[in-house]
Design brief:
homodimer; 127 residues; alpha+beta; three-stranded antiparallel sheet; DNA-binding
DNA sequence: CTATAATTTCGACAGGTGTCGAAGTAAGGA
DNA sequence: TCCTTACTTCGACACCTGTCGAAATTATAG
């Protein structure tokens, strides 16, 4: 089974009208990520060697106080985008890839501009 | 040439630390979409037959006044997510798929849960 | 040319959000 | 035990944002 799917067009968000509750939930997730600092935090955590970063590694990269960084990390954590734990003196955070992928899945237009194998005949929209 | 890429792991956002300017720009895009009403508007426009929708079609689906809907449409348009034009009495809007796809590209973890063909050994993160 | 309908712009206001400094908590070291 | 370091919580404040009603704009119909 390689392609039982009817190869639909467009991103999921453009395929069928979003329900009210679903929209509210997704908007919450998006709000968490719709901030330059949090976007960079997420990126720094995810790209850190080992897949996790200590808060001390993150704070120095910003012109912000520790409470502010802590606040942003809390927002990301509450949204389910990262998780973390204290290990001795330091607190480490890591990305929850499932949640990140959920965001991407909303907007991807079906297939990446990747070396897709298969009968991919992507047309984004008839314009 | 089908795959000169070294098959990287993770979503782009988790691959390398986002630059400050890039983060600011992307956050702007995300802010535009981080609202339940705008998310639904985008979805309704994109899924409308013909790929475009009249404002009159959109307004009725919400418990909001026309000025408010107009405001949200303006936010989406300013962000480059939709465009529109007046045709006679009505104003029509349509999605700009490029911009939507750009959002998705940030978060997709490389390959979809699709029947990927190739030496794909996706592990999102070593947890 | 006036009336009517569709949409946008404008001003105003309540509520949400990012930031800080000060204080609190937790762990390690002298 | 007390001090220092790492991080979080708490209050406060400026600013941004979603919403509305009223008025302006654009186009069609009489």
């Amino acid at each position: 089974m390689a392609a039982p799917t009817p190869v639909p067009c467009c991103a999921p968000i453009a395929r069928a009208p979003l329900a009210e509750t679903e929209a509210a939930e997704l908007a919450g997730l998006l709000k968490a990520v719709a901030d330059p600092v949090r976007l960079r935090l997420l990126s720094m955590i995810g790209s850190h060697p080992g897949g996790e970063a200590c808060v001390c590694d993150l704070t120095d990269a910003f012109d912000l106080t520790a409470p502010t960084i802590s606040h942003h990390l809390k927002v990301l954590r509450t949204a389910g985008l990262i998780d973390g734990e204290r290990r001795g003196t330091w607190v480490y955070y890591w990305i929850i890839p499932e949640t990140v992928a959920r965001l991407g899945a909303l907007f991807i237009p079906l297939a990446e501009p990747a070396p897709a194998a298969g009968p991919v005949d992507v047309e984004l929209l008839p314009a």
